[in-house]
Each structure stands twice: as C-alpha cells, then as structure tokens.
Amino acid sequence: xxxxxxxxxxxxxxxxxxxxxxxxxxxxxxxxxxxxxxxxxxxxxxxxxxxxxxxxxxxxxxxxxxxxxxxxxxxxxxxxxxxxxxxxxxxxxxxxxxxxxxxxxxxxxxxxxxxxxxxxxxxxxxxxxxxxxxxxxxxxxxxxxxxxxxxxxxxxxxxxxxxxxxxxxxxxxxxxxxxxxxxxxxxxxxxxxxxxxxxxxxxxxxxxxxxxxxxxxxxxxxxxxxxxxxxxxxxxxxxxxxxxxxxxxxxxxxxxxxxxxxxxxxxxxxxxxxxxxxxxxxxxxxxxxxxxxxxxxxxxxxxxxxxxxxxxxxxxxxxxxx
Length: 322
Fold this sequence. Notes:
The chain has 2 domains: 217 residues, Spore Coat Polysaccharide Biosynthesis Protein SpsA, Chain A, CATH 3.90.550.10; 70 residues. The relative contact order is 0.15. It is 49% helix and 15% strand.
C-alpha cells in the first residue's frame, strides 16, 4: 500500500474519570509513534465514546479534545451498554478513516499490539483479532468460566475467536459491510467473523486494570454470555427438542412398564418415584420455557427496529477533516 492508512482508535467509556487521564496520554503516545514510524497517516485520531457516564468522563473527553486535535469524542444520549457504545464509535468512524482499532480504556489490553495489527493490515489482512496469550491475570473462577464459555459457544455453532474480546483492527471495507447487519441484539466478537474477508490474529498479554473498578461484574458477564449464545445460535432450541423427544420416549417406556406391572398385580404404592418424575419433568419444562422465552424476547425487540444508539453530542473537532 502506497498511501498511509488513516487510523481511528475507538474507545468506549463508561464512568472512567479515574482511568481516562492515565490511559489517554498512552493512546496518544502510541498513535504518534505509529505516525513517526510511517505506518499511519498524520491525521489519525483517537475517538472516545461516552456511554452515558454519570461522572465527569464526558467533560474529560471534551477537555482532551481541546488540548490536542488527535483526541475526538462522541456522547450517547444514555447508557446503551459496551457493545452498542463500541458499535456507535465504529459506525461514526467508518467513513472518516481507512482502519479502526477498538480497545477498552482501562489499560488492560497491551496497546503495543497495535503495531502488529497495523503491520498485518499493511500485509493484506482486513480484520486483525487481538487474542490473549494467557489468562494469568484472571482469578481461577473467571479463567475457568471464560474458557468454558468459549468452548460452549463453539459447540453451539457460533463462530468466535478463542480468547478474543473486542480488541481488534477492522478496515473501513469491513465496517461498511458490517453496517448491513441491522439486528438490535448484537454480540460484536461473534458477528465480525460472519463478515468474512482476510483475517489474522495478534497475541498479547493482558494486564491488570490501571485505575478504577471493573464495570463488568458477574451478572453483566452472564448477561453477555446469554446474549452471545442466543444471538448467534439456535442450537439451544434444538437441544430442547432433543430433550423433549428423549423424555417422550422415556415416558412411553414407563407407561408400558406401569401397564405390565398393573396387569401382573405387582403394583407398589409409593410417592418417591412420582415426586422424582414430576420434579424432573417440571424442571426441564421451566428451563425450556426460559430458553424459548429468550428467543421470543429477542424477536420482540428486533421487530421494533429501535435505534441501537443515539449520539447526543460530539466534540468540536470530531467531524473536522485535516
């Protein structure tokens, strides 16, 4: 490629007033280093996406944009969640640059991996996934559940990159095609592989959060896991169908057994077996209704076609072309 690609680093932020002053200079240093190395265009930017923060995050973003033209920002009208905030930034950036790199602002993802990502793009890759080479920084519980989740997703038929979150490079070509995906229920790390194009992976070591507290407690991670499975696969419905067929066959066998026992006069009075059967079938029915309800609820939300995000404000330099 003869022309240096313009890069926009897209960084979703929610209540990040503690960590933003620490990591923002690091992002600026990285983008300046890539410019000095001749890998990206001089008008490359850093875009912060304020996801309806309740603290001073948006004020800090605006102040940063006034201090240096490389900083830009957009503000969502309300909190829409990490995935929608990231999508908002990518969709706003896709027509203003050649490539984007999405990354969280907490400093856990190694920003030096961006060099390899840009190199991979220059070598022809349209998508470059940032993949953790280990999970040593996680607790034993989080490490085991995360690894189990990725394996479960793959068994469910979802195409995901193992140990990849949302640290990735995507070209404007990819983003323009991705914009055609109009579903409301989004799970970006599982949707990008569906777009296709040449892709590769860059491996890096994830660090501890630099400042502040994580905004992804257990209940949010579980909700994201459910969204990931139900947004990308219908296999849970098929599993329910299989369970129903199995229970039906088992019921037929039990009915035949009861009729034979009744005919031979070998009937034992008792409640244990009845209670076990009722609880088993009742539990399976409730789980089945819950899974079906998840899909019905998603269909309900999709039919409304509500906007996935609304941008209420932008920094003054966000639309300025240099």
